Amino acid sequence: MIRLVAGVILFNLLSVSIPSVYGRNLVSHALKLPSEVTEFMDGNSENDDKLGTRWAVLIAGSNGYMNYRHQADVCHAYQILRKGGLKDENIIVFMYDDIASSEDNPRPGVIINNPRGDDVYKGVPKDYTGPNITINNFFAVLLGNKTALTGGSGKVVNSGPHDHIFVYYADHGGPGILGMPTGPFIFADDLIDVLKKKHASGTYKSLVFYLESCESGSIFEGLLPKGLNIYATTAANAVENSYGTYCPDDSPPLPPEYNTCLGDLYSVAWMEDSEIHNLRNETLEQQYNLVKNRTADKNYEEGSHVQQYGDLGLDKEHLFLYMGTNPGNDNSSFREENTLPSFSTPVNQRDADLLHLWHKFSKAPEGSPRKLAAQKQFIDAVSHRMHIDHSIKLIGKFLFGIEEGPKVLKAVRPAGQPLVDDWDCLKMMVRTFETHCGSLSQYGMKHMRSLANICNAGIKEQQMAEASAQACVRIPSNPWSSLQNGFSA
């Protein structure tokens, strides 16, 4: 009764003194329910969500069954957002879409993100698939620029100044880069430039970016300025790997027909947390802490250190503003400690493909064409890794000497500094290396810091070309060859 009286008093005051805000009648906004009047008086920021729209961009930056987990993560994220109340017209999905129909998939047409999980593939919009997953299309979607699109559904983030945007990306990465299934890598400086342009356009109120990849902290470290109303969390810091989970040999065990990781540690942590809470009551900060603790659990040796960047003050906002909330969780109460189980045996993202190929080989019948094909795939992958590792080390020795070369390549800049001073130089070094030695591929992303350090040391293009030519007498002919796939930069 007291709240109702307070609402009537507030109505009388507002009807005299404040006619409108943002072009809407503030009185009608404040007097929907007595409880909402109380929220308005308390300054609850969630009330502002009624003035805007939630948008989401979900990106799986890989392809191939060995990378099953990335598309599974994105499909799962879509299901959470739909249950939270977001509309398909406001959710834009990038995924290669080759997993559900893969001959390796033991459940055709089904994708799961948990050993006991439901199908997360059903109903997922196929906005940008296959060769339409490009940097150009991703940036055009973020900026709301339909004229810059090439292929796909044509959906873009057509947001306004009161809208909230959620971006979730899952894939391989390396220092300063993120993978894409076709075309060049996403370089950190280009992504930050697009985020700055989005802010300058005045077409959002706040933006949250969840990033799953190895060395994902390097995408924002020393690059994402404050004042853009952007809050970002990453699966790992700037110098470490991220991890897959629900993998073969894990506990609880996968269904026996699966031989690939079903999800990623950080990604599964934030999504499983979102599924059990009323997101009207859980803040970004609270989820960050829960995910950080579960991702780097002390019960196992492996794990990464979740980070946060940008305008950290936004972490006081509720997840509801970006993800909505499942009505089925309305009665759930938030707990500061994790109630979800620890992950048992995380797998280094860069080794998840080898784990898949080994299980594929070991499960195939002896002497079968399938076993021979799996054996060749495994040997090719290991040979490619050895070639990339050896080539980078040799180039370092040619440029800096046998003693200094390894030290220069492995050097890590102090926290707060970006990976490289001259991003154009880094891209040039990537192209020069790949011209002589072949594609870095998703595995070779780990060496991006070495190439950045070559730039930071003042090495010129001609010097790099000569060292690369000496280190690599030919470009290997394999599925990762730059002769087939083009350059990574």
Automatic annotation (TrEMBL):
Residues 376-472 form the Legumain prodomain domain. Pfam families: Legum_prodom, Peptidase_C13. The keyword Nucleotide-binding does not apply. GO terms for biological process: proteolysis involved in protein catabolic process; vacuolar protein processing. The active site is at H172, C214 (nucleophile). GO terms for molecular function: cysteine-type endopeptidase activity. Residues 1-23 form the signal peptide. Transmembrane segments: none annotated. Keywords: Disulfide bond, Glycoprotein, Hydrolase, Protease, Signal, Thiol protease. One of its GO terms (cellular component) is vacuole. Belongs to the peptidase C13 family. This is Legumain prodomain domain-containing protein. It comes from Protea cynaroides.
